[in-house]
Model the fold of this input.
Amino acid sequence: MKQRNFRLFIANLLFFLIIPAVASAAVLEEIVVTAQKREQNLQDVSVTVTAFTGDTIEELGIQDPRDIANLMPNVSVQTTENFPTFNIRGIQLLDFSDSNESPVSFYIDEVYYGTPAGQIGELFDIERAEVLRGPQGTLYGRNSTGGLVHFITRKPTEEFEARGSFEYASDDQIIGQLAVSGSLAESVRGRIAGKVHQRDGWQTGGLGQELASVDTWSLRGMLEMDITDVITALVTVSGTTINNDLEAVTSVGLNNPNIPVPLFPAPGAPIIFPVPCFDQAAVLRGECVNFFGAPSSVDPERSQTEANLSNDTNLWGANLKLVWDIGDAMQVTSITAYNSIDKDVLSDADGSLAPIGLTNYIVESESFSQEIRLNGSIEKLDWIIGGFYYDDDKDRLEFYPPVVINLFGMGFPYSFGSDATLETKSWALFGQAEYSLTDTITFIGGIRYTDEEKDLLISDDLENPGIAIDQTTFMPIFDPDTGAPVIFLNNERINETEVTGKVGLDWRPNDDLLAFFNLSTGYKSGAFNTAFARIDNVRPSASETVINYELGIKTTIWDDRLRFNASAFYSDYSDLQSAIVEPGTISGAIVNVGDADIYGLEVEATWIVNEDIEILFALGMLDGEVESTNTFNGNELPYTPSVSTNGLVRYRLPIKVLGGDITWTNAVKFVSEHYQTVQNEFTSIQDDYVVWDTVLRWTSQDSRFYIEGFINNANDEEYTLDRYTVDGLGWAATSWARLRHGGVRVGFNFD
Done:
């Protein structure tokens, strides 16, 4: 399997590289990024950042924020039951609860989205996507130890602009997008954009029900005003409603099928404990069963779940950006934002006919953030100072299995549900300066002070606290002194401060070469467990910290036709947080499993071979290992493949059709074998794989219209997005990537 996949990747890459080239004076397009909260050329930023324009995102048909990871080295995304998790350089959120925040920050138009449920919206009318790798603890602060993902939307224009597209694809997928922009009055500009995405399901459940469908509607409105000659205001209001049939996990059993436990035991029946399957190959072939004797499924398009899984999520928000230019040397920026998230997801954690994993995940979150910063430039000095405030109230955070059964025939109804409220308040002060020591050497220094407080109230039922259950024996917990049942009602608090920062040196011997060294730090705040939580494991974990050492080079050569960027880094990662399932139980906990050393290399190149051929190539190499005093010692970090590569070739065919151009774009990604849990179970191994996407596009002579056909996962590769094991109930669950699918897209652009 490994050799076949690697050969397939090389064959695809070589095929596109040997397309004949014709001499041309074509040059690279300049890419402007805001990685350091001011506009800079990509090649002038001493941060490892990958950026793609909105046009490239549209051409490749990227509809979901998670799909951007397929284009970048050492970046991936995991999805379990529509819970997105970005991984950068082996660092990611190892949890599945919206009470936690990712160590990879997620931003849209400089607004932070701390609740993972707020990251599952649609991409539309995007100007640029930026992914910053490595800790961004100075300018972006807490929860950016791995880096950050930032989407920048298109802004209102003075001149009239209209663009849109319509797509029909596999599983009767229909996607419609439209954006209109222009001047509304003197000094007032507006933009409105919307998207509809509908699709039948590509999975089938155990009772024949349809799963993995899409029904999403999104709308965004912007109003930009020149309040004075030096003050500009931009108001944005956006909303998304999601009513999808959830993608299901498939489940492989871990127990011997010849010694079954009754799926629905009769009252008073004797307790039967299963015998594990000791044949790992038989487990992976799906020949074993779970605790209740439910069969396995290893087909990505077929889950054994008995439920009609659903995702009902409403997202809406508003933000105000004020920019005040103070002369030619200083600028004040204020960003005020409010976001509301209302999520109700019904999932099936075990993916089998046994009603043991059916669970509601509910969150109602309201967040407010305020950032104000002042940046300026004085001779040899560029600087920025600012403050940030974040308040997130999760007034309803529920994790509840609605099916109450009589376990083992003992007649005792159990529920592992919990209700919680969580309030997070965080504020920070930050500053960064770049000073030119000589004509070629620049020193960079930055510091950030963060103060954070989290308050958790959790119970089986907040209004009528329930009885705590021992999830090993499934019996009530009694106070040893009084003999009374223990009431599960906990108040927990995190109150911490942290100082993070950065020091670095840039060396620019000429306009085409930048070499840099950075030492940067970051931290992720402590976290609570609010899922499958028993009384002694809702206490907070310690915060994570990382120290990152990085050497990088950025250069543009061959008359601005080849852009080559590379970085080598070492991350000293401390107190890695992870949600784990306690051995022999189904009880969860968030613990600091240990420290980790992460080494890596990243190479990115863009080559304009000629006016007809453009080649992008990226290589990522990673080595991450846990150092711990417990059973995790020596384990590989999850989702840390030793090698990952991305290749993209855009080729304009030497023919004209109706006066327009035809381009053929191919994107190929190779990922080597890796584990998908920190426990490194054999069931969590993902073999190496290759994914190939292809697009054939016709563009009119005036570039106003296009028609394209596309195939995603054209080689029909079966690979997984996430896996986890619950050995206490004898199953390992898998979330799969969608198999081969394709369609046709037509669009227009008047600007």
Q: What stands out?
A: The CA atoms of residues 269 and 409 lie 6 Å apart. The first helix runs from residue 2 to 17.
